[in-house]
Task: inverse folding
């Protein structure tokens, strides 16, 4: 058997968490952790290199039957959808760790929690056994709960508990859904199974699909978060430490959209087609609502948090457009959002460290003292808005044309979200950075330090690369996405609209 | 009857012999407490070997049997029950060793009662006859009543013992009345006799039988503190000395559920469609009431008591499947017992082994005062909340799976929702320990105490914590074992 690279990716951060706890000297903890976090990044890089382009199925599959009476197996695999989420996770954790130098209280535990979190996230994206997936999905909550609750801001306890209970509530019904699937498998094949690939061959009745879709969608919808289930997000984001926000927005929210794409669309295709209007409407409401609320936020971090609601709405809209472009755009937009929103949270964190305030009104004209910082902020804001040439454009464009094919009304309304994004981000930029410096406290602000350069530059490079040349990413995403659509076409009477038909009209 | 058949009561013989030796030694030459502990340990070790021998005979060799004129069963069910209660007793005694040392002159009787309670619980697990079951129930219950009031200097301990005794005696009466009605309609008190009778004879007017069965369920429901028969639990656990409260919870649950499991799966199995809805209703009431009431508590012992009501409900959730749910029941029971003993051991360390009340505020900032204790308690809280990678999650999956398999999807949904709500109060303990600084205002200048567990307690915490995490990550070995822990 080949080297079990997926197990290594999941296991290395967990092992690193234990190693970090053994480091004797406090000042060495962070450097050691950062160094160790490059191992998963290297492994993920190697995985991407070895990944066979053009194949739709799962690769590097590892499968061991764990407990036969329950039908649970240790089943890992990666395809075009999960590959980039794994890469994103591997990339953002070192970034988050570098940005964690401000954590001085119980550093070891904090870093161990971060690394454990990474293990869990890898596990979620790579698991092909539903119970295993659920274990990782739920376990991720614990380190995040501690990161928010122990190292967070003033209302951290409230935010941490709200975060935990909201998501745990969703996953409660997810667990019932997963167990029900195993029982259905047991009825149909004689033995229960949680194996995703085997569950795909089940014949699930329409009503059952309806309920199971609901259970899964509720769990993932809370995680995304989909309007109106989003209320935990602003609190959690605002109270979490910078690195926590980066991971929360960058990766944790994607657990929801990933779950929708991976499980809802494939396991319950008939229900998916039926539910499209509901989810599309909720996604569009999220896009507009998140953006409008973001405009009026006086707190910079809250503004970015609400912008996440809006951006994740695009992802959900892309997924439930059920077109090739929509799905590709959705997957790509998950990565884009991880990069740009991660960067925005980093930038907000940097300015907060200097001034200990996030109120937009406390700033003004600081581009004069921090020109490079302002430049990075503007660059990231443009990426987030979707300026052509930067990554956000590619994702949002694909989502919009994809959804225009199947849901033209939704696409038209959603496109206003792009305009609104420009309003809230550029207006915030204007109030914080331009004009004269009218507060004396802001005159002595330092521009970017070397440490800050080192986290921002890699992100900026990726933002540019995905904006200018997204082909390598799309080549890998496309086959897996097409396979999902083919499955929906084969099992329902839904036909995926494409440009071919539109062109043929005259 | 050959000599071999004494294997059927070997566990009881070891435990009772240990109890007698402790008692006699204490009367004659008053040995140091350590010696009494060693004697108790030896008798428990003997009981473990006896249980293992029963397991070998019943499961490995496949010759499960009924002994002593069909009074005692030697089967996987009784062998696993024996193993479980003996392990729990060992851990419970070790966890209460601080209390034993405080008691001094009365320590010997304390040890004796613990061993006798264990013997009673094993009789409940092994009984093949309602009368034997009742005797086991009474031995276990009376021992526990006395243990609840053992620190009689405190009034609330007396109150706890009296409440426990009065309500417990009432429940015993209800149980035995139910047995008499079952006898009236079937003509036998043998569990297997009832089973044979009900399989072969159609009871035309089953009302008497049903009332009898319902009363038996109510009586045992009281012992396991299932709602709505749970009223005694919070007062008793709060009043009882913290050192032994964990053992009391675990032993009462193991005995009660072992008895209930066998009664439902053997004599009443033909009427599963009649009693399963009742069990489901009790289970739903327990998880909901236990959870909701636990949220309102400000004392950790009361909180754990109400949470034990909810856990009784989770175990009952598996039992709607009858015999098919027994493995899930055992798994949940075994892992929960260890968690609750560990949790109460920490409560005893923080609040004092002989004490009653233990306000949640005692735990404020424990994370920085006693990091290891806090981390262990956090593990137990997460396990009781059913978070993955702890045995609590595997147990919840097992019971919900059993319920869904039996067609009780609604019960599983009620269960998971209650489990989520339950996270609220488990997380609150973690919040207090890690996310809030100790309140300085109360006693300015007073040194912040950082409680340290005694050596036996440390051992208990190491074992229970390791098992909780270990069976959380790889539950399969235990699941394989409980799959064979079935009645004859």
Result:
């Amino acid at each position: 058997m080949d080297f079990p690279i997926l197990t290594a990716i999941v296991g290395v951060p967990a092992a690193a968490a234990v190693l970090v706890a053994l480091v004797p000297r406090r000042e060495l903890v962070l450097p050691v952790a950062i160094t160790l976090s490059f191992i998963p990044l290297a492994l993920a890089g190697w995985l991407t290199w070895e990944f066979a382009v053009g194949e739709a199925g799962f690769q590097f599959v590892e499968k061991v039957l764990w407990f036969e009476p329950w039908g649970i197996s240790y089943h890992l695999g990666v395809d075009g959808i999960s590959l980039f989420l794994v890469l994103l996770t591997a990339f953002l954790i070192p970034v988050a760790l570098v940005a964690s130098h401000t954590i001085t209280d119980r550093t070891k535990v904090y870093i161990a929690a971060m690394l454990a979190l990474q293990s869990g996230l890898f596990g979620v994206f790579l698991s092909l056994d539903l119970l295993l997936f659920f274990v990782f999905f739920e376990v991720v909550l614990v380190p995040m709960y501690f990161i928010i609750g122990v190292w967070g801001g003033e209302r951290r306890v409230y935010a941490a508990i709200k975060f935990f209970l909201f998501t745990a509530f969703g996953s409660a019904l997810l667990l019932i859904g997963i167990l029900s699937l195993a029982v259905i498998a047991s009825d149909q094949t004689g033995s229960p199974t949680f194996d995703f690939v085997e569950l795909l061959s089940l014949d699930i009745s329409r009503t059952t699909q309806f309920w199971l879709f609901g259970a899964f969608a509720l769990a993932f919808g809370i995680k995304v978060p989909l309007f109106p289930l989003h209320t935990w997000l602003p609190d959690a984001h605002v109270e979490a430490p910078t690195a926590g926000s980066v991971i929360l927005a960058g990766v944790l929210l994607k657990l929801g959209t990933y779950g929708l794409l991976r499980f809802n669309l494939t396991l319950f295709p008939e229900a998916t087609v039926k539910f499209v209007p509901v989810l599309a409407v909720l996604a569009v409401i999220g896009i507009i609502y998140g953006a409008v609320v973001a405009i009026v936020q006086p707190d910079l971090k809250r503004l970015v948090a609400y912008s996440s609601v809006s951006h994740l709405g695009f992802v959900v809209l892309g997924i439930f457009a059920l077109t090739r472009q929509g799905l590709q755009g959705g997957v790509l937009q998950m990565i884009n959002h991880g990069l740009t929103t991660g960067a925005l949270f980093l930038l907000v964190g940097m300015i907060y460290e200097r001034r200990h305030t996030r109120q937009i009104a406390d700033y003004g004209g600081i581009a004069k003292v921090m020109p490079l910082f302002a430049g990075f902020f503007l660059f990231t804001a443009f990426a987030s808005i979707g300026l052509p040439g930067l990554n956000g454009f590619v994702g949002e464009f694909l989502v919009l044309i994809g959804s225009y094919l199947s849901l033209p009304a939704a696409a038209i309304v959603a496109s206003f979200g792009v305009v609104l994004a420009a309003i809230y981000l550029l207006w915030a930029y204007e109030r914080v950075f331009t004009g004269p410096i009218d507060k004396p406290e802001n005159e002595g602000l330092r521009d970017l330090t070397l440490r800050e350069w080192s986290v921002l530059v890699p992100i900026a490079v990726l933002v540019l690369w995905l904006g200018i040349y997204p082909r390598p990413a799309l080549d890998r995403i496309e086959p897996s996405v097409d396979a999902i659509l083919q499955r929906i076409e084969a099992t329902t009477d839904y036909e995926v609209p494409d440009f071919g038909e539109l062109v043929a009209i005259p | 009857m050959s000599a071999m058949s004494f294997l059927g009561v070997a566990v009881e013989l070891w435990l009772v012999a240990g109890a007698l030796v402790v008692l006699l030694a204490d009367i004659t030459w008053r040995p140091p407490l350590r010696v009494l502990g060693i004697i108790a340990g030896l008798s428990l070790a003997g009981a473990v070997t006896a249980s293992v021998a029963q397991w070998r005979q019943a499961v490995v060799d496949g010759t499960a049997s009924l002994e002593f004129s069909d009074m005692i069963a030697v089967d996987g069910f009784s062998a696993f029950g024996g193993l479980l209660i003996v392990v729990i007793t060992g851990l419970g005694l070790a966890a209460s060793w601080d209390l034993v040392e405080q008691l001094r002159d009365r320590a010997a009787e304390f040890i004796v009662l613990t061993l006798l309670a264990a013997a009673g619980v094993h009789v409940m697990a092994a009984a093949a006859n309602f009368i034997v079951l009742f005797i086991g129930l009474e031995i276990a219950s009376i021992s526990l009543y006395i243990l609840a009031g053992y620190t009689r200097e405190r009034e609330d301990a007396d109150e706890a013992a009296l409440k426990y005794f009065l309500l417990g005696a009432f429940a015993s009466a209800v149980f035995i009345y139910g047995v008499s009605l079952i006898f009236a309609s079937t003509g036998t008190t043998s569990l297997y006799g009832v089973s044979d009778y009900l399989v072969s004879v159609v009871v035309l007017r089953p009302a008497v039988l049903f009332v009898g069965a319902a009363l038996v369920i109510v009586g045992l429901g009281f012992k396991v503190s299932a709602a709505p028969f749970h009223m005694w639990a919070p007062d008793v656990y709060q009043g009882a000395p913290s050192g032994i409260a964990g053992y009391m919870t675990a032993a009462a649950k193991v005995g009660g559920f072992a008895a209930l499991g066998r009664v439902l799966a053997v004599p009443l199995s033909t009427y599963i469609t009649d009693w399963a809805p009742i069990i489901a209703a009790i289970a739903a009431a327990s998880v909901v009431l236990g959870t909701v009431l636990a949220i309102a508590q400000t004392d950790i012992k009361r909180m754990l008591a109400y949470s034990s009501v909810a856990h009784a409900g989770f175990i009952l959730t598996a039992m709607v499947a009858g015999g098919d749910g027994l493995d899930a029941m055992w798994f949940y029971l075994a892992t929960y017992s260890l968690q609750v003993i560990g949790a109460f051991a920490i409560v005893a360390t923080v609040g004092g082994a002989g004490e009653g009340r233990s306000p949640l505020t005692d735990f404020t900032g424990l994370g920085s005062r006693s990091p290891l204790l806090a981390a262990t308690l956090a593990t137990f809280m997460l396990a009781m909340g059913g978070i993955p990678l702890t045995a609590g999650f595997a147990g919840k999956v097992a019971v919900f799976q059993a319920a869904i398999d039996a067609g009780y999807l609604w019960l599983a949904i009620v269960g998971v929702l209650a489990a989520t709500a339950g996270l609220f109060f488990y997380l609150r303990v973690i919040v207090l320990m890690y996310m809030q600084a100790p309140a300085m205002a109360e006693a300015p200048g007073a040194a912040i105490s950082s409680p340290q567990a005694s050596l036996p307690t440390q051992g208990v915490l190491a074992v229970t914590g390791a098992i909780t995490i270990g069976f959380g990550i790889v539950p399969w070995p235990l699941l394989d074992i409980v799959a064979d822990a079935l009645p004859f």
Summary: Residues 270-500 of chain A form one domain. The beta strands of chain A are 59-67, 72-78.
